[in-house]
Amino acid sequence: MPIRTASARWQGNLTEGAGTVRTGKGGLEGNYSFKSRFEEGEGTNPEELIGAAHAGCFSMALSKQLADAGATGISVETTAKVYLDKTDAGMTVTRIDLETVGQVPGMDDAQFTKLAEVAKENCPISRLLSPGAEITLSARLAS
Known about the structure:
- InterPro entries: KH_dom-like_a/b (IPR015946), OsmC/Ohr_fam (IPR003718), OsmC/Ohrsf (IPR036102), OsmC_Ohr_Peroxiredoxin (IPR052707), Peroxiredoxin_OsmC (IPR019904).
- Residues 1-26 are annotated as: Disordered.
- One of its GO terms (molecular function) is peroxidase activity.
- This is Peroxiredoxin.
- Pfam families: OsmC.
- The chain is 34% helix and 36% strand.
- By secondary structure, it is of the alpha+beta class.
- Helix 2 (46-68) crosses helix 3.
- The protein folds into two domains: 6-38; 46-141, GMP Synthetase, Chain A, domain 3.
- It is elongated.
- The protein is built from four helices and six strands, in the order E-E-E-H-H-E-E-H-H-E.
- The strands form two sheets. A three-stranded antiparallel beta sheet has the order 1-2-3. A three-stranded mixed beta sheet has the order 4-5-6.
C-alpha cells in the first residue's frame, strides 16, 4: 500500500501567526490560523481535516458493506462533526458524530443501520480515532 503524505507550514506565534496545509498530491490546500481553529475565523483547521478524512473513509467503508450485501445504485453522504474540548490534558478531540444518509434502492432502514454500524467499526479512520474519542453514528435512508 502507498504511504500518504500531507504537510503544514506555520509562521508566527500561536495567536497571530498563520499557516497552510496541503495534501501530498495537492488535492487539498488551505489556510489556517488561531481564529479558524479556536474561534470562527476564515480558513480550515486540523479538526475539519480529521472530519473530512473520517467522513470520506466511513462513506467508502459503508459503500463496500452495501455492495457486499448486494445493493446497487448506491449513494452515501456523510457529515462528521468533530468536537474539540478543553480537558485536564489540554485541548482534545473528545467526540465525533457521524451523520450518514444513504440512497440504496430496495434496502430497508434496519439493514442499512446494521451495515452502517459495521462500517463504523471497520473504517480505518474510526479504528484510529476510537480509542481516544467517542464516535457516534446516525444513519438513515433518504426519503
